[in-house]
Structure formats: structure tokens, C-alpha cells
Amino acid sequence: MIIQTLLALAVTVAAAAADPAGEWARFRGPNGSGVAEVGALPGEFGPTRNLIWKADLPPGYSSPIIYGNRIFLTGVRNGRLISFAVDRLSGKVLWEREAPRSRQEKLDPRNHAASPSAATDGERVFFFFADYGLLAYDVNGKELWRRPLGPFNNIYGMGASPIVVDDVVVLTCDQSIGSFIAAFDKKTGRERWRTARIEARSGHSTPVVYTPAGGRPQIVVPGSFLLSAYDPRDGRRLWWVGGLSFELKSTPVIGGDTLYINGFGSPENQPGAMIAVTPTNEVFASRDADKDGKLTRDELPTSHARDSLPFFDLNGDKTIDRTEWDYYKAAMESENGMLAIKLGGSGDMTATAVRWRYQRGIPQLPSPLLYERALYMVNDAGGLVTVLNPQSGALIVQGRLKVPSDRYYASPVAGDGKIFIASESGKVVVLPPGGGLDALAINDLQDSIYATPALVDKRIYIRTVNSLYCFGLSP
Questions:
Q1: Are residues 141 and 61 in the same domain?
Q2: The domain spanning residue 435 has which CATH number?
Q3: Are 306 and 431 within one domain?
Q4: Range of the domain at 158
Q5: N or C terminus of the chain: which is more exposed, having fewer CB within 10 Å?
């Protein structure tokens, strides 16, 4: 199963030099930032260049999670949900475990049953499969507990990853109906609390943690229309900020007391292209011919409303009721944008917390990257890169990567003065810091990439659909 390294000596040297405290313990590494303090990362790599090892694994989209000398991933083999651990030094699979699969939820073609990434506290590792729920193992593969969850009703399928905060595992489950955020005791799996997210209707965002000066950690997670902060002890919502898109899929990043989050709902949410939606009372008075409180597709007043029916039919009955029309109207009135939000406060902070907003070339899926005094966005379609001044929101530069006709689902990461941007077709573009868009290298792994790379010690770990690569400078 394991393809042996082309550089056997490199493995021996790596084993002697590995940092046992090296960690990338959740989706996008330290607090979801995508940034690691590492040195001597290769800029050029591929199947025959700076390869330490390559492991062939069950297909999946989850990103590598690393603590010490173990890498944790998920995949699907012959319809079976698999969690596994890989030795960071050799690429050898140390253990794998199968999760129950009591159902197969509907997925968008861009999603996968093994999409959410694991999270670990160094002693335990936590996996989430939307087709089952949460499972916990110790790092040697002994099952500690399992917690069935769902079924879920996200039109795209679930995508958010768990995180560990203090002594709980936190999971955000945004869906068409019944969205919630919940915390589970990391030792026993007992549900500590569950808080409804009434406004959230669609999204995949993984939370980050904000700790105010002299205060306790807060769980911060974006969702439809709102950014919200929760107390990890009891799930109480502490403060919130409006003005977000109706769909949030990216994970925010934090710099100082400011959070940066991008949201893209649809082309019609772009300023200048927005459409007017008739108020709910008016549309039902004029279009609900049989007065049953529901609009069939033929009763919907515009072609856009008819085409949008699958996205706003929250209960799946192929009609639109008043609540669903309210959501449709609010969604179409929300705007795409990157927002800089001042963290902290109490209650509704919308009026004072939004420091700036930028609204051109906003990605839907890739998360932003804050690195060396520049804020990066990579658009899903075509690789449009936007670099902003994080203090003011002023545009530094905007341009396309030199990878024609490609798409981007992985989020950018950075370390050692290099920015790594992976495309769907398997190209990994390496940019310099400071806003420059002239690539230092374009590396081709010749397999699709949906997972976000991980950076630990002097290595970059990249998961393609079928393999996991470890690259490092040859000794």
C-alpha cells in the first residue's frame, strides 16, 4: 500500500530530527490560521523532486491533521467510512478504523463523505462523518466513545470540522432546518450543551477561538447573516455581528483584535447585480391562488425564484411557505464580501464592529490567509488572487495565478516565507510574501486536490484525492 520513498536516507534523517511537539491539530492548523512557524520548506516539489514519502490512501477530501509523529485523515473505501493514522516520518499506515454508516446523505458533487477534517488534543483524536456522527480514539487507535448525530439536511452536505476547546469537542452543524452548535466532553462523549443557530440555513464554516485580554476563550463561528461568539462552558451566545452573506463556507482568521471572513452567496449578491424580491405579504396575496400558504413552482413570481426553489425550499416539500420566502428575500438582500470585524463585546455589536468591507473577487470556499501584513483571498473559479491591506482593506494587488482554467477548493497556507495555493487539478502554486503574484514555482502532483495542506517542522504534507505526500528539502 505504501510506496517507498525515493530518498530512503531522508527518512532516517527526518526520524532523528523530528520535533515531537510539532502540531497541526485542527483544520488549517493553529487556530485555523493556515500559518505555521516553520523553516526550510521546499518551494519546488513533485513525484520525483524533494519527495520524502508518498502513501496511497482511500479517497477523501479531509485535510491532514498532525500531532507529534502522527497524521490523522479520513477516507471512503468501497463505501466504508475509514479513519486512519499515518506515521509522519515514514508514511506507514499505523492503524485504521471503520465507522458505522447507517445512511448515505445527499452530497453536492463538490463534496465528499470524508470531507470534515479530524481534530486532536495530542492524546485523543476526533472524527466526524455526516453519515454517522462523532467518534473518538486515542492516538494509538483504541476507540474511546462514539456519538451518533443527524441525519442532516444541508443541501450541499456537511463540511465543517470539529475543534477542541478546553475539555470539550465543539461541532457546528449548519443545515436547512435545525442548525446548532454543540459541545461534547472530550473524555466521555457526553453532550455538554447544544445551542440552536436559528438564523443559519447553509454553511460549512469551522469555528476559531478568540481569547480576550484577561478573559476566557470564546468560540467564534460565522453562519448565515451573522458572526457569533459562544461560551465554551455552556454554549451561551455572547455577542454577534450582522452583515455576512447568507452562505458561509470559509473559516475566519484572526489578527490581533480583528477577525477576517469572506462570504459569497451567489452572483446576484454582488453589489450592482442584486435583484429586488417582493415582500412576503405582497407575494402571497398576489400569487397564492389557492390560499394554502404555499407557493408552488408555477406560482412563484420570477424566473429567478423558480430556479432558486431547491435552495430555499428548506423542508423539501417542493413549495415555498412564508418562512422560506422570508429567507429567500433576506438571502437576496445580503451581500458578498470580505469583512474585517472587531472582536469582542456583548450582545449585538453590528453597529460598531465592522471595520471595513471589500466586495470584489470574493471566494465562496477557500478561507482567507493573513500572512506578513497582507490578507489573501483566492477565488474558487480561475484563481483570482486578491491581496488587501488588513488594517484598511485597501487593495494591494489583484491578479490571476498562472494556472489556466483551474478551480480552487483548498485554502491557502503559508510558512517559511512562502504561500502555497493548491488547485483542483493538482497544481500547487508557491508565491512570495508581501503581495507578489509572480510564482516562485508551480508544482504538479497530477491528481485532484480538495484538502488543505499542512505545514509541520520542515515538511509540507499535501493530500490529493488518492494519496498523501510528504515533501522536504533533501539532506
A1: yes
A2: 2.130.10.10
A3: no
A4: 2-271+335-471
A5: N
Residues 405 and 314 both lie in one domain: no
- Write the DSSP assignment of 113-136 as a string of letters: TT-S--EE-SSEEEEEETTTEEEE
Separation CA 57–CA 87 (nearest Å): 13
- For the cut 90, the answer to whether the pLDDT of residue 17 exceeds it is no
Q: Which of 311, 313, 432 is nearest to 376 (CA)?
A: 432
The C-alpha cell of 203 is what? Answer: 454553511
Residues in the chain: 475
Domain count along the chain: 2
Q: What is the CATH number of the domain that holds 309?
A: 1.10.238.10
How far CA 79 is from CA of 66, 336, 461, in Å, comes to 25, 37, 25
Residue 464 lies in a domain: yes
**Alpha-carbon gap, residue 218 to 238, rounded angstroms:** 8
- In this structure, the dihedral spanned by the alpha carbons of residues 279, 302, 324 and 366, taken in order and rounded to 10 degrees, is -110
Under a CB-based contact definition with an 8 Å cutoff, are residues 474 and 449 in contact?
no
365 found inside a domain = yes
CA 473, CA 299: separation in Å to the nearest integer? Answer: 63
Peptide bond into 58 cis (omega under 30): no
Q: Grid coordinates in use for 431?
A: 508565491
Amino acid letter for position 349:
M
Would the pLDDT of 18 be above 60? no
Residues 149 and 259 reside in one and the same domain: yes
Assess whether 173 and 247 both reside in one domain.
yes
Cα separation of the two ends of the chain: 26
Query: Which of the four pLDDT bands, split at 50, 70 and 90, describes residue 403?
Result: confident
> HEC string of 295-354?
ECHHHCCCHHHHHCHHHHCCCCCCCEEHHHHHHHHHHHHCCCEEEEEECCCCEECHHHHE
pTM (two decimals): 0.93
All three cell numbers of 466: 488518492
Q: How confident is the model over 286-344, as pLDDT tens digits?
A: 999 999 999 999 999 999 999 999 999 999 999 999 999 999 999 999 999 999 999 99
Half-sphere exposure of 442 (CA within 13 A, CB side): 11
Query: Within 13 A of 241's CA, how many CA atoms are on the CB side?
Result: 24
Cα distance between residue 361 and residue 89, in whole Å: 39
Cα dihedral 9→12→18→23 (10° resolution): 80
> Which residues share a beta bridge with 242?
226
